[in-house]
């Protein structure tokens, strides 16, 4: 049989024969190949890998390798190459899934030869000359590091059956593309094969730029994306640039050794030097560290990355710049990033509409149109004219707003840069003129107007010079301010002599002031009531003090005090009492606790002839609205909602109507109005834009946690989704916050792309009342993490996903959840995104608002509570020799709640063990400027969520 194509090197000889409609390729060892190739049959693997008889005989539909197609131009070659590379990625994934046969023991042959040459050219004149030039051009230290890199790349990570020489010259496009393999089969980490092939594309780019290769018409990005899409995973940062350098040096070494000297070898060394510089940008930068171990309550606690707590330290600044570069380099390889960004932008174009707050004859409400970056505050004048009152720009956001009783004045708070350092001002609503303020040190607290409409009570921190250093974000007090007067002359009303972390809320209803005081975010509060009909607070009456319960109070037009409380009722009840004598003994149940549903809110329609009360409860986080007789509590009706979703922010204006916001997993927020007389519910404000959400199937799944506790999880997927899919699991599990069904562009974009999105309703949340919250706080915090692990196991057991397709995501307390999950059960997850997280639980109280959360987590100052915290603190449980998932930390420079040092320290710890242990999965830090923990511009949200989704897609195989 005559060969139609034949080519050879010193190591391999390839002959191509025409055979029927296709071709037969035969590969044989060349004269310099002195090792007997292992004869390995791979049965039942991907059809691209062909072993029809002889180990090195293949049948293909074409005679040309993929390398030849590059010269054909993008119009002809592009689709062919992309398909061939995608199928090759699938083939490599199938190859790597096979256990390495016993006879395949050698590491990567090319890197083995390169490492040996760097140690000793073995008398080869040309090879020795080349090594000397490489030392001069690359540097002796860096060249020595290249040898270490060879050994690191061939000796680390879980070994798989590697192709060992994946190359464009070994890919034969056609109806059934073929990846030639056989004589270079070896053991090594999975990403070495993939990176070696990607490195060839990088090498070609550099060769074209250096003028030593003809201009090739190919799109590197699209070819890389095709290969990664087929394989389903992304190599670690810097891999293909580093391997590109090693590949070029290997080829140069082989040429010098087996052929001899050529001046073009100098150019190849220059290319390798350029690639190494690019690779170094993608390698983990060394973090400043100390050999620091403290003895805390008899326990030695290591904290090597303490220097990263100081963002102003020059070493920390340098490290952060390098981390930014590393993330940006990695982000360029996230080939779904732009697609997610576009889809998120379209989903966000639905905008937002908030329910009205009625004051006098005016309605006030927020709205965000498509294209607007922030919520905008509007008013509806008595004549029906709608006007914009506040339209923030840039990084400025509205933190809070409260009109005066007659709607003539508006107290509002703005902050910038994400720092939530609110400035309080007062506007004349009719003219839009600012008539008072700004008053500083007012961190997002509602204002309580007095009946005169010219004075109000508000919460303000003490000046920095009156508090100990480091406590400037605490020490709040309640003041009385009269519009137009100097804030320095404001009257101190409440707050002296209490704990520095005490948080106050004030409210005035029908001539009565309530002051609520809680220690940080404690689920209990003290409550006082005072008559303000005289224009200033009278004597304070105790409603509850020193009681392990939370109570809110408002006084109705009928003169009764209505109390919403979980005292002796973990799921909440409504009681009434006399405001003149509000002690617990006088309380009378109006609407008792429901055995399953959790009380969330109520609206009082008390100027009707027969006053009514609209009650909001949640049953497994889904809202139910009912109507009750306000005098007896008797059930009189129900308020229908569009579906199993969330109704919130009930408001009234006097009369029979109640307004509320509604959303569910496919419905952007709209505002509905219900008339209790007619029982009719109508749309008051639709979403300003159009989102066109994809079809989604949502269902609630119940599973058992480690201790047998039943936990619920909302699972979303496309209606036709089948089989294991890439899955994104999220949760929160803290502070009594419920994970209620709501419109989420991030969730919808993931589901539309083919993934499964799951929300676990963990202990620590509020889905089943205060007992559910307390089952996941303080010493019981491990329950939250166990619930989350069990959710992952349930998703896998039900066939919805697999561990190598499962990503987890959480922010703030949810970021702590993700940190604990990836350190406790890393084998369950392929990727993890931890946003604005708490991760060093030994030192969390020392920064941000951490001291306010000791009632939720415990305090490291207490020996028993320290033991709780240290037992799960993610930063302190990073270990060598563990195959961690891919991790992305996202933080904002302006975060004044959770200090970004948590993510910095954890990132450094994981990068160190990943580098030393040779783990392939990347560990990245994304730092955002001019943003904080809370509200941000829509474009910033889209950019962040697109990066998160693209990262998760890259490491779970979402295509």
UniProtKB/TrEMBL annotation:
<dbReference type="InterPro" id="IPR051167">
    <property type="entry name" value="Prolyl_oligopep/macrocyclase"/>
</dbReference>
<dbReference type="GO" id="GO:0070012">
    <property type="term" value="F:oligopeptidase activity"/>
</dbReference>
<keyword id="KW-0645">Protease</keyword>
<comment type="similarity">
    <text>Belongs to the peptidase S9A family.</text>
</comment>
<dbReference type="Pfam" id="PF02897">
    <property type="entry name" value="Peptidase_S9_N"/>
</dbReference>
<dbReference type="InterPro" id="IPR001375">
    <property type="entry name" value="Peptidase_S9_cat"/>
</dbReference>
<dbReference type="Pfam" id="PF00326">
    <property type="entry name" value="Peptidase_S9"/>
</dbReference>
<dbReference type="InterPro" id="IPR002471">
    <property type="entry name" value="Pept_S9_AS"/>
</dbReference>
<feature type="domain" description="Peptidase S9A N-terminal">
    <location>
        <begin position="285"/>
        <end position="686"/>
    </location>
</feature>
<dbReference type="GO" id="GO:0005829">
    <property type="term" value="C:cytosol"/>
</dbReference>
<keyword id="KW-0378">Hydrolase</keyword>
<keyword id="KW-0720">Serine protease</keyword>
<protein>
    <recommendedName>
        <fullName>prolyl oligopeptidase</fullName>
        <ecNumber>3.4.21.26</ecNumber>
    </recommendedName>
</protein>
<feature type="domain" description="Peptidase S9 prolyl oligopeptidase catalytic">
    <location>
        <begin position="742"/>
        <end position="957"/>
    </location>
</feature>
<dbReference type="InterPro" id="IPR002470">
    <property type="entry name" value="Peptidase_S9A"/>
</dbReference>
<dbReference type="InterPro" id="IPR023302">
    <property type="entry name" value="Pept_S9A_N"/>
</dbReference>
<dbReference type="GO" id="GO:0006508">
    <property type="term" value="P:proteolysis"/>
</dbReference>
<dbReference type="InterPro" id="IPR029058">
    <property type="entry name" value="AB_hydrolase_fold"/>
</dbReference>
<dbReference type="InterPro" id="IPR011009">
    <property type="entry name" value="Kinase-like_dom_sf"/>
</dbReference>
<dbReference type="GO" id="GO:0004252">
    <property type="term" value="F:serine-type endopeptidase activity"/>
</dbReference>
